[in-house]
Write a structure and sequence with these properties.
Blueprint lengths: L4 E2 L8 E3 L2 H7 L3 E5 L5 E5 H12 L6 H12 L2 E3 L6 E3 L2 H6 L6 E5 L4 E5 H22 L5
Antiparallel strand pairs: 1-7, 2-6, 3-4, 3-5, 4-8, 7-8
Length: about 140
C-alpha cells in the first residue's frame, strides 16, 4: 500500500527519485500512465495487469470504455527504476501532467500519483473544505 506525500524534483533529463518507502514495491518494474486531473498514475506491474483485466471486462461497444482504454494504454510506459531509485518520465507524460522541476508524489493506496507541485497545491486547497462532507457521500456509514 502506498501512503504519504513526498516532494522530489524532476531533473533535466526527466528523471524523478521515487520516495524511498515506495522503492521496494516498485523495484521490479512499474507502469506509468496518464491519470485523471492532469496527474500521472504509477502502478506496480501486477497492479497494472489487474487494472487491465478489469478494464477489459467493460463492454468494448460502449464509446466511453473505448475512449478510456485508448487514453490509458496509449500513454502507458513500462519503466524500471535505476539503482538510485529514479524513473524516467517520458516527455509525452511530462507534458500531459505539466511537470516542471517541483513535483509532488503521493501514495494513493494501490497506486502512486505524480503531480506538478502547484497543481497539487491548488487541488488540495480546493478539496480540503469538501473532504468532511464527502465522507458521507463516498463511504456512508464507514466514517
Amino acid at each position: 500500500m502506498f501512503l504519504g506525500t513526498h516532494t522530489p524534483h524532476l531533473d533535466d533529463k526527466g528523471r524523478l527519485f521515487l520516495p524511498a518507502k515506495f522503492r521496494d514495491e516498485l523495484q521490479g518494474g512499474l507502469v506509468i500512465t496518464k491519470g485523471q486531473d492532469r496527474s500521472l498514475y504509477v502502478w506496480t506491474r501486477a497492479g497494472f495487469e489487474e487494472l487491465t483485466s478489469r478494464v477489459r471486462q467493460t463492454p468494448f461497444t460502449r464509446k466511453s470504455s473505448r475512449d478510456f482504454m485508448r487514453i490509458l494504454f496509449s500513454g502507458a510506459s513500462d519503466e524500471i527504476p535505476d539503482k538510485q531509485g529514479r524513473i524516467t518520465i517520458p516527455p509525452v507524460l511530462r507534458e500531459y501532467a505539466r511537470l516542471r522541476r517541483d513535483c509532488v508524489v503521493i501514495g494513493a493506496g494501490d497506486r502512486v500519483e505524480i503531480w506538478d507541485a502547484a497543481a497539487w497545491q491548488g487541488y488540495s486547497v480546493e478539496q480540503e473544505d469538501a473532504f468532511s462532507a464527502m465522507s458521507e457521500e463516498v463511504m456512508p456509514g464507514v466514517l
